[in-house]
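ESCALATION

Customer reports they have been waiting on this structure for their group meeting. Please prioritize. Original submission:
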Amino acid sequence: MVGKKKKSLYKMLLEFPVIIFISFGVCFSGVSSASEKMIQRDINNDGITDQVAYVDSGRVVTRLETDNNADGHMESVQYYENGNLMRTEKDTNGDRTMDIRNHFANGRRIFQEKMDSQGQMIYVILFDETEKILEIKKDTNQNGSFDRHFFYTSGILTSSTCDETGDGNINIWKTYQKKQVIYKKTDENGDGLPEEEIFYNQNQEPEKSCHDLNADGYLETRREYNDGQLKTEKKDLNQDTVFDLIIAYKNGRKYIEARDADFDGVDDIETRYKNGKKVQCKHDTDFDGIKERTVFYDNDENPLKIIVDTNGNNAPDQWQYFNNNTLECFEKDRNHDGQPDLKIFYANGEKQRLIKDDDFNGFFEITQRFEEDGWTVIVELDSNENSLADSIFFYIAEALARKDVDENRDGRIDFRECYDHNGRMVKSEEAVDGAGCLNMAWYYDDSQMPVRAEKDTDADGRPDIWYYYAGNHLTKVCEDTNHDGKPDIWEEFGEAEEMLRRSKDLNFDGIPDIKEDFTTSETVSDPSINDNL
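Update from on-call: job pushed to the front of the queue and completed.
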């Protein structure tokens, strides 16, 4: 085959008028040896040589140069050895620099080189035995090394590799089918292990992908797509080849997420999304297979409501309500009948009020108020469920400091007890004589024996009768009869509470004017009193 080509080429050259001379070559065709002869040819008969052949002493062509565009420059050169084509060079852009070289062996092309104007290699193409492309090597970053490789089978692209960072290590692998990418693998951190694998469909859209998101060498995340849109994301968080986190997407946004927190194969956390934002989360906090905690979220993904099933009967018994990520109300169903019987209200994160239904009849008969009027807590009891408190307890720290009682359920306090920090009653008040207010006050010693009492007979808020006790019996009574705030009658009593003495201030100057001693039946009067009356 090679011999026939040589003869045919030589005969073709001899069919045209030629000028034969011994030369060291033409300036654009290189240097010929003394044994070479140059044959020039005018192919298009324009009077300008556009083809030059160099033949050896055996009349065998060693080089053939051709000017394809009649510009006086030989754009292509063919090199022969023993009549066999070994290499071709071509100037494809007219800059008078050969930028493509083809190399041949045994009559077939084995590889092609492409250079830039400075002679820097751009790419190399390797061919198989049938001269179909076998591999392409490219230097895309012009650093003198090939950073992209394309591999072919029977001339069809099947795979490629890329050194995208230029460090000499491959970090991108691709597989092709029918000229389209069907698989891509990427090593992003240069550790030799892929951090991403993508599988593509016929439309060049991702169909499935695997990811090593924490760069630990394990592809723990798998994503599945539909028409190029992400539909499902699965994660193996503990690297046991079982997915522990599954996220479903709709219209490119996740709308449900399931997580196996204890890696037992059962989902413990289920989160739902709307428009890409979290709206609800169910959580099995004790890993018993029942999601007993549900959280609802606002538009900023802050908790809006939390519902909890504390006894695992698939019925909620605790509720928490939030506003701007701050707890506003807590409710609890203590008897698990499906209805809350305890509610706590908050302001700025601080507990303000609590109401309880202790008999579980649907009516909240107990109310607690916190940090109100200097009290740590105030507890109100509505025992007859008329929406009016009939017993009120006031606490400082954890100690009862005061108790108010509405005994006749008319909405007005009839009795009050006050206690010191040790829990001893130091004072009591009561409504007497139909006053409609607390007009009688009792004061007690450390043994809670009465030592003094005060009575407001005219309900003006000031006492006008004072009672004094010793050893649990009455010793003295003082009375303000003209309501000027000062006593004008004084009475003294014995151990049997019999009256011993009595004094009276008739002109209200604070000095007794009449004194009676019942132990002697003696009465003493101030004679000047008549002058002042």
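Sent to customer with the following note: Residues 1-32 have pLDDT under 50 and may be disordered.
Escalation resolved.
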